[in-house]
Amino acid sequence: MRSGELAELAGVTVRTIRHYHQIGILEEPPRSLNGYREYGVGHLVRVLRIKRLADLGFALQDLPLDDDADHDSRLASLDAELAAQIDRLTRQRAVIAALRAGGASPDLPPELATHAALAVGLPPRMAKLEREQVLLLAHLGGEEASRLLEDLHERLAEPAVTAAFGSIYERFDLIDESTPAVELDRLVTESTEALVAALGDLDLTTPLDLGSAEGLIDEHGATQLNATQLKVLNEIAEQLSQRLA
Asked: What does the UniProt keyword field contain (predicted)?
């Protein structure tokens, strides 16, 4: 039989047959005088074995080439691999469920998924900034930054605190060079007081070590905020540092 007939009988494609040849798990038969490969029933049996083992989950490159292989050992190894995949998929589904329940963005680190709802309800630009800053900090700061962000979000996710900061974010989103100085001062003071109340005894005295990437956080903020907003943020940071010192 030719490759097309073999593929049809086995329930695969001719391309699949060629792939089996390329990776060395199916022996190529010699060509006949007319230049075509002629396959026998042995090739069909081999393709059916390959198909069956692949359906069980064996990687093609790990398929036993003979019937005398240690099947129990291979099955035990495959079972352990599939169990690990199930665990990974179960954890992945739990993260997806948390993201859906909290309305969070799927691009956030999994450990922050349950606390990412803080940005929900904020002005779109502020919500985008919050999400992107979290993503940058978690990636650049590693586990230390992720733990700190998780603690911060857990404290800020209290309903009353979220409502207070939602109002602050809304006012902050509207300020520019035309905003009266009295409103800017009030916003700085209220933001600082709200942060001090929310952070409680959380230790923020040790700065995160972001190395050469530290300036990227400031650069990102500068691309999203106007000069007045950046000035207000700096004043809040200074007052907060003094209060927590």
From this structure: DNA-binding
Total count of residues recorded for the chain: 245
On whether both 119 and 192 belong to a single domain, the answer is: yes
Count structural domains, the chain: 3
Q: Are 199 and 239 in contact (CB under 8 A)?
A: no
Question: pLDDT (tens digit, 9 = 90+) per residue, 112-170?
Answer: 655 555 555 677 888 788 878 878 877 777 777 777 777 777 777 777 777 788 888 88
Is the same domain home to 184 and 92? no
- Is the pLDDT confidence value at 182 over 90? yes
Q: Do 153 and 118 form a contact (C-beta atoms < 8 A)?
A: yes
pLDDT of residue 218: 82
Looking at the fold, whether 118 and 74 belong to one and the same domain comes out as: no
How large is the C-alpha radius of gyration of the chain? 30
Percent of the chain at pLDDT exceeding 90: 31
Amino acid code (one letter) for 182: V
Domain of 14, in residue numbers: 3-63
Same domain for 149 and 225: yes
Q: Which residue has the tokens 């985008």?
A: 128
pLDDT of amino acid 188: 95
In sequence order, what are the residues at sequence separation of 6 or more whose Cβ sits closer than 8 angstroms to the Cβ of residue 28? 21, 37
- The Cα–Cα gap between 190 and 196 comes to 10
User: CA–CA separation, 173 vs 169, rounded Å?
Assistant: 6
Angstrom distance (rounded) from CA 21 to CA 29 = 10
